[in-house]
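Fold Annotation — chain and its backbone

Encoding — discrete vocabulary of local shapes
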Amino acid sequence: MCGILCGINPSYSKIELNKSLHLMDHRGPDYQADFLFPNKLYMGHNRLSIIDLNPRSHQPFSSDKFHIVFNGEVYNYKELIKEHHLIVHTSSDTEVILEMYKKYKVNCLKYFNGMFAFVIYDENNNDIFIARDRLGIKPLYFYNSTNEWLFASEIAPLQRLVNSKVDEFGVRQYRKIRMTIKGYTLFSDIKFFPSGHYWLNGKLKKYWDLDVSSKTCPRDEDIKILIEDAVNIRKRSDVSVGSYLSGGLDSTILSYLLKPEDTWTVGFENLNEFAWGKLANSNLKSEHHQTIVDNEKFLTTARHMIDKRLEPLSVPNEVLIFLMTMEVKRKNTVVLSGEGADELFWGYDRIFKWANRTNNLDVDEFDNYYCYGSNKDNEVLDFALEGLPGETPLEKLGYYFQIFHLQGLLRRLDNSTMLCSVEARVPFVDHRLVEMIAGTSFDWKMGHSFKEPLKRIFKEIIPNEIINRKKIGFPVPLDEIFDLPISNESSMDRWLLFNLENFRNFNNY
């Protein structure tokens, strides 16, 4: 897990580009290097050493005039070496990506299981190949002007260089759905590189999409084997691996499969899930750590995160994830997280029950079931729902949650953990699992309760109390934090306004 900055025909000096690269030191505090090729290609990298800690795997990494900067992990790199008879000189997945590209060019992407955003330069023919993983686990932003391109793992390095104006439609998206989608950011000249796409010499092409058409439900045993494998390959690390453990279904399953030495939870003194975390850990016997947050710490930290990222935060628990991960860093550099399970098994039961009984995705009803706060903006919701694949409202909503909603959660997780120099891994976002579950029936996923397949499959290994626990959100006492008991303003309205005020003040907007 790292931070990358790449410039194609950059109009900035190497010194200026390097200063921007330093804005992501938290993404890779272990080593930094950059190189400006004679043909005006800049490649910069901040390394967080996780697999093959040897300096031989520092980046930019080169082999036979092929060069790469890479953020993420390709978990099946050991299998790729064996199955494709690769000759490698390190024990890192970085070299495997480069060797696979040398062998298969753009088709290498279909073999990778992982989270990644990388840039490869083939000095032999001047090809530049850029790709992002299927589901957008790892971020990649870009700027383009005439024949100049800039790519980075975060917004701040790009904004320092291009000084873009704020995008009002991006701001409206944030106010309505707590994130931006379909390539937008809150800056008009900085865009999100789309997931499941690659860029080759200036041309963007989709290499993967999610098929949500109806399919036969898989066997429980097949799901169990695949989830276990998704966890097992995410154990691969030359540094310690821990797990978040709130005592909810998803984090408990992952922790029981991982069996880490350390598990982690977070909450407020009088609003937390500590009892559930202790219960979950009672059979696990990991060292369980609790992080307690107070209101002042919450607000101070939120402002710090907004300033550092040059973005408003999505939901309040983003602050708690960051503060918990600050503690995680004391013992673990890698941590497993349960993101993706709700999108796979429709843990948002209220909205999916509505989608199952309706004949169309009415914007006002979607607003009522999905959005927070009192702000009305149907143009944003029309934009969000436009062009969704699928024959039924249920299929369309399934696609929206798996492709767009999930990316907001993944962005939240990446930002919160990498700011602490910790890599978060998400087994439930293994693309094999996503492809297996997409298109399965409402009755199979929902059953008599939310996430019934997960409960049924893992009922023998986790406590019954957690199997039968009612679903709750990640608790944050916003009314108390913002002192809102007598205000007509909702807590989510105040949260969104707080973020935009701090974002706009920082950017003099």
Q: What stands out?
A: The mean pLDDT is 95. The radius of gyration is 22 Å.
